[in-house]
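note to self — DONT lose this again. spent like an hour looking for the file last time. sequence + predicted structure for the chain T wanted, 262 res
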Amino acid sequence: MELQLDVHLITDVGLARERNEDRCGAFTPEEPATLAERGRLFVVVDGMGGHAGGDVAAEITVQALPASYLQGEWHGADETLRRAFVAANAAIERRAAAEPANHGMGAAAVAAAVIGEGAFVAHMGDCRAYLIRGGQTTRLTSDHTWVEERVAAGQLTVDEAKVHHYRHVLTRALGGDDVAEPTVRELDFHPGDVLALCSDGLWGVVEEDEMAAVAGTLLDATTVARRLVELALERGGPDNISIAVIRALPAENHDGRVAPPA
């Protein structure tokens, strides 16, 4: 059964940056057969490189990744998502090679394909995906960062990682590796569930229990997304802030709403 979704996407420059190097997008195939096969795709990207083209890398990703996933050869959702990340990585590398000023640019990205009552989530870097269900938030992604790998190995505690001076050092990123290796996982996605995809400008200052509280009290995707961005801004908005909120509507609320990006 195809879920009816309530969706809202926001990207905000924050309060400390001069320009926004984040991008986000929602993509729905026009052909019913493609929609049934590949579902709807949502992407959040955090560009890196500052004056070396972080915004350029993010823009390339938000175009190349969906194009590859929705139009490329089909190998199942998980493998096709992997190939879409590879395609985005190659597109960034080609642009950087052609434009010396953008040498070294890259991007972290997270993408979710919602197909029927399931979803496939893929990511590289430190953009995250969360599932909010029954008042609880479950983190679906593990950051590809130096500190996260040390936490997983038992060499750092979570509290130590939060303040470590290497906490923003990525071990995988689009444009930063010759071979793109995203992490992909599959999950059930049911009416009443909420998927939140976000950049570190949001998750770095908004806690998981706060996400659950906001999603539980503000039932439409637009107000959830806006309130979470407001929280990040209230806490100083130290980075660009991007979030995609994808809510599976309960059966009694199936009205086909899809809110446009802010």
